[in-house]
Design a protein that fits this description.
Helix content of chain A: 25-40%
Oligomer: homodimer
Strand order of the largest sheet of chain A: 1-5-6-11-10-9-7-8
Number of domains of chain A: 2
CATH architecture of the largest domain in chain A: 2-Layer Sandwich
Radius of gyration of chain A: 27 Å
Largest sheet of chain A: 8 strands, mixed
CATH class of the largest domain in chain A: Alpha Beta
Structural class of chain A: alpha/beta
């Protein structure tokens, strides 16, 4: 039977050069987040189908790779739909598994629980350049802390990490779903159409204020609501302290304390961060997932043209598993996007120099081989990376290949030592 | 809809304490194998079904988790068997994906190529204690080197790793499939029944020589062949240098150079290893997978009662993908088994002490919060692990939980500073 050399459609093999950067980023992530008290955890990549189709995942639920039942449970004759033949699927994010994990193990975990997850997720999306059906996500979450200390910690940890990677002058956009909703309510949009309004608002940076106005009108919203709404944004643009301004302006429709809460997050982060970045209140920030209940944030790296991560507070999701209200907030960095940036920059992983290759002519006598191996072992014990390899016929090409892999020193060994 | 708290049947969540040890082992593996010039690579966990059912995987091919086709390709009405509905599956080992990877990328990789893989594999096995349907494998492989330098490097690298983990006095059993076959041929077993003979031989350590004799007789083999075979083992037991003995004894049926090849591997490793362990020629070592063509090895850790890893040479497998004969040899450590041993030993990961927890009373004023966060940030910058957490009502229980997580120092902050 003919075998297939290519990976499955839409997934990719990681070549050594990229792998080096991925390993480096993963260890930097773990080291940094651990210093903030986050604990690495891991869940199976396979998840119960009922949890993957629980309406927590939005459109991602349409993209599930489903796994077939096995043995007697697989019955083709009685199956009416594909779901009769599947019992599990590949996780499409790390949030649903985290919430299940917490529900399952809450008694064994500290409260609040600070979790770190890095791992592959799967979406049967249409394959396109730079977007794969298996990709890594990297999330930190704090479960069981309803105070804004959780948001402050998440932002400090994430921006510290970005700083260590080498990013500077990036922006973290921040908003609160409650402020987002209060602005819509204040303007006179009906509560059941907020999501539609936000989908349009989310395009503000692309289509501008006029574009937003046109689209809202097309959807049949009242002109007066649209005008009030856009005026709010107009006024905000001139305000130094937008959050305080909205806190006063929206007092009647905004949950008490919501503006002060956001203000305290911004001030605390700005006062304590050791990384250069902008933390910017952004009233147009929406974030797609409907499970967010409070603060939301998104990372913008200048010149990238797309988000490099984001997150927010989702206080109601854990309770759906546990029936115990449990506040939760998470921040995810765009792991694959950051890898792409570093690859494009020709990033060199620190400490990967100093690699030496021993090239041995074929049929080296046993005693000489032992001498050479002993020399290699000694260098390794000193912390050096030593490749011992047969010498190819085309030695020049072999050395070029190894140079591309980062080998900077070569030592050649011949059966008859050179005179 | 009711959600499920448990992981899918047969898979498990990794709790923080185990995760700490796993992360430590992974970084030790990567650091050690890199020092031997192995390059980390990664393949998708999803593999083409045709590659998973190519008869390379033996019985594992019966245990594949199959993934359903999607969209228009999924046609329940025309499907006759489950394979009409599946197009891919979860990999059951790392060897098949490695060979596909190498076939796909040989031109971009150095020759010989030294690969390191760590990652999850999946087998729909009957769940049982300590055995899971998703588990990590950790393999090193050298592709494109037909010389025994490859075996020497694999054994030195693996035993160096085991030494760094803290194992001492373990045994690496070594044999060669060609010697195994030559012993059977010399004894007069027919070539097409060798596999049956080896399945019985493999039980030698459990059922003894008499048990082996009985079983072979039951299978209908000739008494004279059985006697010759067992006499060989008898004679071997009295030989100091079993490999040399067999090299002479089996000269007529053994591939020329095979015994010398194995002898050189054993001598070179013994002369250059910096770890205390036994490298032992074991003529009863079989290794299950039929793809092995030459040297085979297996790790025995005293008192464990089962193998802690193994591997061997499989010179014919790559050619099935590439149509270009490519020698290959690999060594796999029993990652999950080692984790279990370390957990059972109460292993403490080095460098995880020095964790401090800041416990903050609720509703800390903004300015005080900033002071506290700044103090935490400074400690983190100094390399310490600092958890900032709300103080729970049951502070005593919270501290107990955190102590179990490895926090050794606590600092409490109150809204009204204590006098």
């Amino acid at each position: 039977m003919a075998l297939t050399k290519k990976p499955v459609n839409g997934m990719k093999d990681i070549l050594p050069q990229e792998m080096l950067i991925r390993d480096y980023l993963i260890s930097l992530v773990k080291e940094t987040y651990r210093s903030f008290g986050f604990t690495p955890i891991e869940t199976p990549v396979v998840e119960n189908l009922v949890n993957l189709t629980s309406k927590q995942g939005g459109d991602n639920e349409k993209l599930i790779f489903k796994i077939m039942k096995r043995g007697a449970k697989f019955n083709l004759e009685t199956a009416k739909t594909e779901d009769d033949l599947a019992d599990s699927g590949l996780r499409y994010d790390l949030t649903v598994p985290l919430v299940r994990y917490y529900a399952n193990h809450a008694n064994e975990l500290p409260k609040p629980f600070k979790a770190l997850q890095i791992g592959p997720v799967f979406r049967a999306d249409r394959p396109q350049k730079g977007r794969f059906r298996e990709f890594y996500q990297c999330d930190i979450d704090i479960l069981g802390d309803g105070s804004n200390m959780a948001e402050i910690e998440l932002i400090l940890a994430t921006t510290t990490l970005l700083g260590k990677i080498g990013f500077e002058g990036f922006t973290v956009h921040i908003n609160d779903r409650r402020i987002l909703k209060a602005m819509a309510a204040y303007s006179g949009f009906p509560a059941d159409s907020f999501d539609q309004v936000f989908i349009t608002l989310d395009k503000m940076d692309k289509i501008g204020r006029e574009g937003v106005a046109e689209e809202l009108l097309e959807y049949g919203f009242e002109q007066s609501a649209i005008d009030t709404y856009l005026n709010l944004f107009e006024e905000l643009a001139g305000e130094e302290d937008g959050v305080r301004f909205l806190g006063e302006k929206l007092a009647d429709v905004l949950e008490k304390g919501a503006a002060e809460n956001l203000q305290q997050i911004i001030e605390s982060v700005q006062a304590t961060s050791q990384v250069k970045f902008n933390l910017k209140f952004d009233p147009t920030l929406v974030r797609g997932m409907s499970y967010y209940t409070g603060t939301i944030f998104e990372i913008e790296i200048a010149g990238l043209g797309c988000s490099a991560g984001g997150g927010g507070r989702y206080d109601e999701m854990v309770g759906k598993f546990t029936n115990i209200a449990t506040p939760a907030v998470g921040f995810s960095i765009g792991f694959e996007r950051i890898i792409t940036i570093l690859m494009d920059q020709g990033f060199t992983v620190p400490g990967t120099a100093d690699k030496v290759a021993f090239l041995l002519e074929k049929n080296m006598p046993a005693d000489r081989l032992c001498e050479i191996m002993t020399e290699a072992q000694q260098l390794r014990a000193e912390g050096r990376q030593v490749l011992v390899s047969v010498m190819n016929k085309n030695k020049k090409f072999q050395k070029e290949q190894l140079t591309a892999e980062g080998y900077s020193e070569f030592k050649e060994f011949y059966v008859r030592p050179l005179q």
